[in-house]
Write a structure and sequence with these properties.
Mean pLDDT: 83
Strand content: under 5%
Distance between the termini: 12 Å
Structural class: mainly alpha
Order of helices and strands: HHHHHHHEEHHHHH
Number of helices: 12
Number of strands: 2
């Protein structure tokens, strides 16, 4: 679940300064007057002074193979939750793949540092309880901008709580959990460096990121094949997958 939370949050934080036009009414975002100041704090303070410098330093000193192993390790930790959510969504095949990936990568892959399972055709199936609720027909609810985390919705915030509290990911201590979260945060921010120009050039970054966020939810709930209607703008699959 870290991927969704961190990826979307960091996408939000990437945006540079821009003039914000008069706020428009958006039924998805009834709390916009509260969300925008939180957005500004995430962008102007957290990303500018903490996350972006950390990500740049991380990229500069960390060899690509080591970064790849970090991604593999943190993805493997989330595999049990991915499997449970796949089963709840009526995808027994995907659930089985995630279980098999966890067993193989935790052993042959040396605690998940190497994605051996992918090499034999078992691709990661990223699932979370927010997606599960979407598959069950639960609506997004109000759009939320969370301090230090970025964009979310009532549905996905509920899903995050279930994934991280109700469904135990793995027997990790609090320090280990914080280390894993920090690693994912920095790596996710680093992977989004190439998207900065697109975000910075948008007329209103707040609205742009909100539209990307909602399209990404459809992309995930429908496993990469969302309905074509109500798409505010075309974003390619690579862009959506990197969030």
């Amino acid at each position: 679940m870290y991927k969704k939370i961190v990826g979307a949050a960091l996408a939000l934080m990437l945006v540079g300064c821009a003039q914000v036009p008069e706020e428009k009414q958006d039924p998805r975002d009834p709390l916009q007057s509260m969300n925008r100041p939180i957005y500004d704090f995430n962008m102007d303070v957290l990303d500018a002074y903490i996350l972006r410098p950390a990500a740049k330093g991380y990229v500069a000193i960390t060899p690509a193979p080591v970064r790849s192993s970090i991604v593999n390790f943190t993805t493997n930790i989330a595999a049990p939750t991915d499997a449970i959510n796949a089963a709840l969504q009526g995808k027994p095949g995907d659930a089985g793949v995630n279980v098999a990936r966890f067993l193989i990568n935790s052993t042959v892959g040396i605690l998940g540092l190497f994605d051996v399972a992918k090499e034999i055709g078992l691709d990661h199936k990223d699932e979370d309880f927010g997606q599960t609720l979407g598959v069950w027909g639960v609506g997004d609810g109000a759009y939320l901008m969370i301090p230090g985390m970025g964009p979310s919705t009532v549905r996905n915030t509920t899903g995050d709580i279930v994934d991280n509290v109700v469904i135990p990911k793995i027997a990790l201590s609090t320090p280990q959990t914080l280390i894993v979260f920090a690693l994912r945060a920095v790596e996710a921010r680093a992977s989004l460096m190439s998207q900065e120009k697109l975000l910075n050039e948008s007329l209103d970054p707040y609205i742009f990121l909100k539209d990307v966020y909602f399209q990404r939810q459809l992309y995930e709930v429908y496993d990469g094949n969302p309905p074509m209607e109500e798409e505010p703008e075309d974003f390619d699959d690579d862009f959506l997958e990197n969030l």
